[in-house]
Batch of 2 targets.
Target 1
Amino acid sequence: MMSGRVLKAFNEQIKEELESAYLYLSMVSYFHSVGFDGMASWMRVQTEEEVGHAMKLFDFISERGGKVELLPISTERHKRWSSPLEVFQAAYAHEQFITGKINELVKIARDENDNAAEIFLQWFVTEQVEEEANTSRVAQALERIGDSGHGLFMMDQKLGERASASGSAEGE
Ligand SMILES: [Fe+2]
Ligand SMILES: [Fe+2]
């Protein structure tokens, strides 16, 4: 059984992950609207990953005999995106924010002597390293590309190659 404090923090993290999915979905929609279908496809895989993260937490709470509380999802971070660079910079900033949330969760699990929760969260700690690296690498590349139409075209092609987690060994 989880303590009330750990349970509350886990429920809030489910909301954060679903909010991430919703944010990334807004980016998918932007990319399609400006004809970057490869970037849209990359971000769609990311959206699915975020739903996967939420479900991992959902299942853990259930296994521990806790009750999942679904909280309202905010669209506060959604914007009228104006360029792929702006989108990937926002995605990177968002993942840094999520890393902070995961670190807070680990701290709460430790404070409450919840070893199972702490060990479970290690997967998320590692995952955040990957999430930050993925988004910052694309943002960096887009910064170098600047306004080059050819560069953006190549980048769109390249990002379109990202396979969904269910169909590859890339994981979640
Ligand atoms: Fe996530
Ligand atoms: Fe990932």
Target 2
Amino acid sequence: MKLLVIGTGYVGLVTGTCFAEMGHEVIGLDINSEKIAMLQRGELPIYEPGLAEMVARNVQAGRLHFTTDYAEAVRSSDICFIAVDTPQSPNGEADLSRVRQVAASIGEHMDGYRLIVNKSTVPVGTAAEVRTIIQESLKKRGLSTGFDVVSNPEFLKEGDAINDCMKPDRVIIGADNARAERLVKEIYSSFTINHDRIITMDVASAELTKYACNAMLAARISFMNELSGLCELVGADVTQVRQGMGADRRIGYKFLYAGVGFGGACFPKDIRALQAQASDVNYTTPLLGAVETVNIRQKQTLGNKIIAYFSSHGGLEGKSIAIWGLAFKPNTDDIREAPARVLVDQLLKAGAHVRLFDPVAMKNAQKSFPSTSAVHWAKDELDAATGADAIALVTEWRQFRFLNFDTIKGVMEGQGFFDGRNQYAPDEMARHGFDYFGIGIAPVLAADAVTGESPMPDIQIDATSSKTLPKT
Ligand SMILES: NC(=O)c1ccc[n+]([C@@H]2O[C@H](COP(=O)([O-])OP(=O)(O)OC[C@H]3O[C@@H](n4cnc5c(N)ncnc54)[C@H](O)[C@@H]3O)[C@@H](O)[C@H]2O)c1
């Protein structure tokens, strides 16, 4: 079967390439001619580990092609996947204009039965709307050819997208007839060969499942972030609390990390879209509102800690802060709604200079972060730290994990270290000479590491009782 994947962004390019890897003939189509020209030259418009090699391999094998030509692409394919962006409208709703455009283009060019499979994240009712648009288009052309519209939401994670696509936890197919369901199952059968991970359901439930998953994951993050603030105030350690919680199999360890808040192209907009859909049917969603409110506050947390620290260290005005990591998470160049952006704005507003570094997101950040003389684009983490009064770790790239912190401390002006991801051992960082601050854990100052460590008192065992007594 010939597959057309419409939209060659993070979802479309990855899924289309994975389909080709499984032996299907795939056309990737985009209205962005620059992107298509890059892909035709063998360059990738996005960063995703392992994707460049896989695209090259399948292009070379003649299974993967790229085009901007709707007419030719729709006519020569059997199944059209929609993988275009559904960003947030000003009122919080999902902006479906691109999905509608795609539906109109398919209707304009199809000349026989087509299966339309929607992978974009869309509110309940969108498949029905796509069907109506195509029907109207066909009517205008005087055609009565049949077609089906199926919902097949995508669950891949940027940074690990190929793995998610090749070995999905589950494939959700929302179809309203058996033929369409069977066709989509057939396409995915090669990805679920060792055990069946295909879940079929009605179209509305499939559309809602995608939002439900993202909202649940975001809620776990906001829950831990809210708890982290309380931990700091009452003297608990959120990393220890996490271990105690995660050991409960009903809870599990995943998505229980306190940090600088969630960002990216999905969680923030999807929570707002779900709220907007609920509001459309006069249903209140206070829990979803709280998930977002906590996240907005959390994105300010690291900046607030830096501002508070420098209020007793000569003020932040004119100070230089290194920021490690600009992408919203590691292994991607995606900076949409990235917490680093909030921090940069906060620090610049307080009069600081920033020294920014990310292993792969520099190009994207340079296009959309403020460009003033107070912003320095560093060539690596050491360059960012050079002359800095403090470092803020925002994105936990692996290459930041094991560094020579004596060298890093040696090139800095100051000694603040603000760890937005609780990546480092606080006492060790203090021993390297840093005043260390994490999220939801007690700060440890360099001065404490040198003078404040009280030795363990010698203890003696009282053999007559089970009590242990300090030696007198
Ligand atoms: N990025 C993720 O991690 C992820 C994961 C799961 C689901 N999703 C969902 O998948 C959808 C796509 O997300 P993305 O991150 O790949 O978006 P993206 O912005 O990276 O890519 C979308 C692509 O669609 C193209 N496009 C827009 N209108 C078009 C049209 N009329 N015809 C052809 N191409 C068109 C754009 O030029 C762009 O290249 C969204 O609904 C998103 O919520 C994203």
